[in-house]
Structure formats: structure tokens, C-alpha cells
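On clarity, I found the account of how folds are encoded harder to follow than it need be. What matters is that the chain and its backbone geometry are given together, residue for residue. For the editor and my fellow referees, an illustration may be useful. For illustration, here is how one protein appears when written out as sequence plus C-alpha cells:

___
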Amino acid sequence: MSLVHRFVHPRFLAHAAAVGLALGAAQYSGLGADTLMAAEPDRQRQLVITDSKGDRGMLAPYVHRKNGIAYLYTSYIFDTLVSQDADGNPAPGLARTWTRSEDGLSYDLELQPDAKWHDGTPVTADDVAFTLRYMAEHPYVFGSVKSLAGVEVEGAHDLRIHIKRAQYGLVEGLFSAIPILPRHIYEGVEDPFRFATSDAAIGSGPYRLAAYDKAQGRYRLEATEDHPLGRPRFAQIWIVKMGPDAALQAMSTGEVDVISYLPPDRLPEALSAGFAVETSPSDHVLRLGFNHRGQFQTKEVRQAIAYAVDRSALLVTAFPGIAELAETGYFQPGSKWQSEEATEGYTYDPARARDLLMATGWTQDSAGRWQAQGGEIRLRLLTDGREVKPAKVIAEQLEAFGFAVDLRVMEMASLRSLVADGDYDLTLFSSSTLGDPGNISRRVFGRGWNSDRFPADPKMTGLIKAQAVAQNQAERQEILAQFQQLYAENLPSYMLVNPLMATVFNDKLSAPFMSGGVAIGIPSALHKSIFLE
């Protein structure tokens, strides 16, 4: 579902003499002695995007920050084999065509013959083969090549990729996620995680990294010539650190063109100013996570907690008008993988929650406090500073139900440490449900702090493996429908609310959020295709 509001700014200042107010002229140390503020007489050929977080690291594989936005910015510089069209469907990237063999065990790819690296060197099939071998030795956080059996270079722009087991999701998964590396740059790099010089950012994308100010969290990207997928619409793209208040003010004066993510509660200001606003559920769902090796080993206890939490009240109290109730079966409305069959929604039902707990042997004392094995149950609920308001609401609801709750709001490093040590009962975190379903296993069974950390379940793992090797989309959807029912029943985590996201544009361009997310599943309206003519 996409909620789209389109307005045109009544008066856009084509020339912004005070661009320096937003961008400054900070010196960059890393790509040479040039300054971030370059002379650009034609403001219409320059796009300024704000990012409230700032530094995303060097925009090169292996050294950018391990988050979706850093990957998104890097994708402007590094192409993948397969890109996306405006509807989020697979489209030519570095690969002009791809053909799947009848047995599903290989793909023949024809590359764009005129693709070039930013230093002018032609992109060849040898670069692709090198990348796949290199990433087998140096795994990339946003794409695994473990499913590949080998690669054959059959010409300057032709290659065949062999697969260990036939699987349908390779095009929208691996081929769309892996940034292709220039062999002549990376071949001698033994540790790519420490490779952050200017050469590390030589890609084949429509923009090249011209300047990066780590301290200020600012980037300047410059258009490349003759990109095979189209001419860049802007000579320069600036990405600058700026909070919502400053960004709205700078957009009003014509200094800023795009606010990448505006808090939904600030939408009235953007709309009243006449800007184009694109909103969509983020599908980065706020979840209640369980310690499956502690109090919540049995699904009945997890289900009881779900019935004891009033999600509708949480939505009204902590997310008024800026979120919607989440689907409990993992995939969210609008996903092509969501089952048509309804999953258990866990409507607020304290009586049912009480019956489930008592059936497992838990009891309540005369004051209504929950006990197990003769002792009071005290739940340790952990979260970081971003989720304080909903955490307080949930803590109050659980206390009203009879639990003693120890709510701890922590710095991220401490939170991750306690989760890794199993020193918690409940966590509140956000995690994506977007991207190809091939990533489900990591998100459900992985050991990361923002994974469900669910113990291996034969039925669920079997379905995940089966969908990965399905031969067509219909077969995958049928398997994933079964997975969603099991997810809602077992509650690896409890999907609470799906927050909205908003991007604000002036009249230079606008685009809706991409269905299914960008590449690896990033909720964004800023796919690089919108920057091409």
C-alpha cells in the first residue's frame, strides 16, 4: 500500500545563492585536496538531498556502514548485474540480458558492451567472474555467493554462472544485490574491509564519488558520461547531514531539493508548504522479540504475551497517524509474497492470555502478580533510545496484566552485548521484511541483535529451504503461505506496528516508494533510476 500526496511548490527558487548555508565548504581528506563546495553555476543541474543521520561511511563495498541507506548511496556508484524498473521489477543493470537454463542450474548473461569503470576502463565478464570469486573469499554483508558452483567467461561480455541447486529467486536476490567490482582495482587488495582510499570507490554507476567529508557527513557525487542505462539527470548530487527543521527551512529557500526521510509527524508542515510528499509503510516492522532460551521457550507463553499486549492502544498512543498495525505472519500488506489466507492477529484478549499461561503451570498470587515455580516473574525489557515511547506503553500494559517489568533503555553497544549474552527476556526492535525471501533465514534464525534468534524449527526451516529452490513464483508463494501461518503461530517475534516513512521533494523530481523495496529491500523512493533520463 502506498499513500501518495502530490503537491507542487508554488515558487521554486531556481538559483539559490546561499547554497553554502546548507553545504558549507568543508575540506575533504581522502579523495584529494578539493573542497566539498564546487562551483556549479546551473542550480537546476544540481540535486541536494538531506540525510538526518549524516556519515554513512565511504561509499564503497565492504567499507560503507552496514545499513540499507549506506548500501543505497553506494548503489549510485556501483552497479549490480540486475537493476529495477519503476515498479520494482527486475530490469537490465550491468547485464543486458540473462537466460536461465531449463534445469535451472546455470544462467547465461550478456553484459552491457559499452559499460565503463569511472577510470575509463571497460567493464568485462572477467570483472564479474572476479567479483563472484572475490566475494566467496571475502563475504559481503548484503549478498552471499554460497549458492554458486562456478562461473565461466565465454567472451568479453558473456559469461555463464553455475548454481549448486536450482532456485528461482537468484535474479531478484543475488544478481540484484552484489555490487560488481573492478578487477584491476581490487585484485591486489587482501583486506577489502580496510580498503577505503579513493580507488575503492571506482565503480561503474551513473555517479562517481567526487568528495566525502566524514566529519560533516557530506558527499558530492558527479555524473558520469555515457552510462548505458541513461544520461544522469543531474550534474551533481549532494548528500548532506541536516535535521528535519533545518531541512524544511532549507527546502523553503530553495537550498534543498529532497528530504530523504521526514518524520511522519512533520508531514503537515511539508504539505502546507506545498511540497510533493511520498509516504508508504516502511515494512521495517517494530517487533517484540523473545528470549527463546529463557522464559519464552514455549509458543503458548509467547502467544499469551501477544494476547496481553493491546496493539491498537499502542498504535493510538505511541504512533498516532504515523503507523498501521503489522501483519503477524511476517510479510506485510502490499508484498507479493503475502498470503491471501488470514493469519492469527492476536486481538487483545487478557482472558485468553491468562488461560494460556495457567495451562503452562504459571500462577497468580493474591495481588494478581504472575509467578512460576514459587517465585515472581520479572520481565527484563530492553530497547534503545529510538523506541522509548512504545517500550513504555508495552511495559505499562504488561504490568497491568500482572507482570513486574524492568524496562531498560540502553546505548546500542550495550543492548547488543546483553542480547548476545541472553541477558534479557524481551526486546523491542525494528527489522525489515522486504527484499527477496532468500534472506528470511538470517532474519528469523540469525544471531544478530535485530534478528528473531529463533531456534531451528524443522517445519519452518524446511519451508524456507523449499522456497529457496522453488522453480517458479507460484510455487514459492504457496510454500511461503505455509511459512506465514507457522510464523504467526510460533511467534519467533511478535510483529506490532508498521511505521510510515515519508520523502519530500520539490519540483525537480518526485517518485513513489519502490514496491518491495530497493535492491536488498530498502524502503526508499530514491532508487538510482529516478536520477537517469
